[in-house]
Specification:
5-stranded antiparallel β-sheet; elongated; alpha+beta; 438 residues; 34% helix; Phosphatase 2c, domain 1
């Protein structure tokens, strides 16, 4: 180091040397950092014990912080040991002067830097700003203060601490993006819930005693596929017709959310209009299939379409890919026989599909249960087991407590039945519509 300082005439960077010192307890290793600089005809040799300079540089790199002091009189710079490493400068690049710092600052941060220099040098106060440098994506926070010869005197230097805050800023930006996204999703969920609440009142009727004139009692339970969803693709309908008959239907539109709600509403209202033609249910189902097929999107749905003839206590119904109704008679539950040719195709699959109807005569005390597969479906899917599970639950709830008289008694029964089939395995909308001949 002495030879290099002599021949080059320039200070030599510190180097760590170690030696052993004998003490009463034995030899102890001692280290020091040595720096040599020419001083006229002599050399100035400094010893920094304990490797504190290296420790300081390492600490600066760990916390991504450095500092420097810029002398305004001679443009001299006194940087910290880790200045270059923190700013990403190589050893052969000079420490930037204030003018170099301004030249390297990106245009969007230049005004901020000039304002900071003005505050420190002319207004003589501590200031803070954020800087970005050309060719780098990193962000630095600079805290600068004036250095004066005496309190109240002239400013002769600027002292600044620079901290790499890139990771922190990116984390905050990511957090803000996540918060904005969460707010949008929350607002969307509120909108969906509001729409769902309106649709629920419009398309999921609550029965009281309005079906008495047809010699029937009705009760229904609807459970959406997620808490707070309000309404999904399931729907049901009971409407008196001009010919004195009663239109009954229960369906399950494909999908979830507003897409399913839109399809559900379209099919439900289409059926309401078609039913006024007084045509048989097999023709109504065929027309409803054409409505679903005509939709530009992939719109499929399953459904049971029925008409009740009170003068004959006869239920005439069709099936479009839906679980068949269940008849509960004298405490025993059984699926109603399928129409000739078996259940028809799901609505919206194939234009021109025809459907067959079948008839069920209701006796006093009979309960007909129309339900969607979300009430019984499990994973992995097994339709036969799902049906047996539903039949068993219907009989079990009947044995525990037979449905009481009137709408209230029937409503209590269907609510108990749905509760017995509910659980964490349920991942789809579930609807149960019960009809009783008192």
């Amino acid at each position: 180091m002495l030879a290099d300082a002599h021949h080059q005439g320039a200070p030599q960077q510190s180097d760590t040397v170690e030696w052993l010192v004998n003490t009463r307890t034995g030899p102890v290793r001692v280290s020091a950092e040595i720096r040599i600089a020419p001083c006229g005809d002599h050399f100035l040799l400094t010893w920094e014990p304990g490797g504190r300079l290296h420790m300081a540089a390492a600490a600066q790199q760990l916390v991504r912080t450095c500092w420097a002091e810029w002398n305004l009189a001679d443009d001299g710079i006194q940087p910290s040991r880790g200045f270059r490493q923190v700013l990403g400068l190589t050893e052969n690049v000079p420490v930037p002067s204030l003018s170099d710092l301004a030249a390297a600052t990106t245009p969007d941060c230049l005004t901020t830097l000039y304002q900071a220099l003005y505050d420190v040098l002319l207004r003589k106060r501590v200031t803070r700003c954020e800087l970005r440098f050309r060719g780098s994506e990193r962000i630095f926070r600079m805290v600068a203060e004036p250095v004066r010869i005496a309190p109240g005197g002239l400013v002769w230097a600027l002292r600044a601490v620079l901290t790499d805050v890139t990771t922190d800023r990116r984390r905050r930006e990511a957090t803000r993006r996540a918060e904005r996204h969460a707010r949008r999703e929350h607002e969307r969920a509120d909108t969906v819930a509001e729409i769902a609440n309106v649709l629920r009142d419009a398309v999921l009727p609550q029965f009281q005693d309005e079906l008495d004139v047809y010699g029937l009692e009705a009760a229904a339970v609807y459970r959406p596929d997620a808490p707070g969803a309000g309404v999904g693709g399931d729907w049901y309908k009971a409407r008196g017709l001009p010919d004195g008959r009663l239109l009954l239907a229960l369906g399950d539109a494909r999908g979830h959310g507003l897409e399913a709600v839109t399809l559900m509403a379209k099919l439900r209202y289409a059926l309401a209009g078609l039913a006024y033609t007084s045509e048989p249910v097999e023709l109504l189902t065929r027309w409803l299939n054409e409505v679903a097929c005509a939709d530009a999107r992939e719109s499929t749905a399953t459904a049971i379409i029925a008409r009740y003839h009170p003068e004959r206590t006869l239920l005439r119904w069709t099936c479009a890919g839906h679980p068949r109704p269940v008849l509960l008679r004298d405490g025993r539950a059984a699926q109603l026989p399928a129409p000739a040719g078996g259940p028809g195709l799901t609505l919206g699959v194939l234009p021109g599909t025809t459907y067959n109807a079948t008839e069920t005569k209701l006796e006093i005390g009979d309960i007909v249960l129309l339900y969607s597969d979300g009430l019984t479906e499990r994973r992995p899917a097994d339709p036969d087991q799902d049906t047996l599970r539903f039949l068993g639950a219907a009989e079990s709830c009947f044995r525990e407590s037979a449905p009481g008289p009137g709408h209230a008694g029937l409503q209590d029964y269907v609510e108990r039945l749905v509760a017995s089939l509910d659980g964490p395995h349920c991942t789809d909308d579930a609807t149960l519509l019960a009809l009783r001949r008192p």
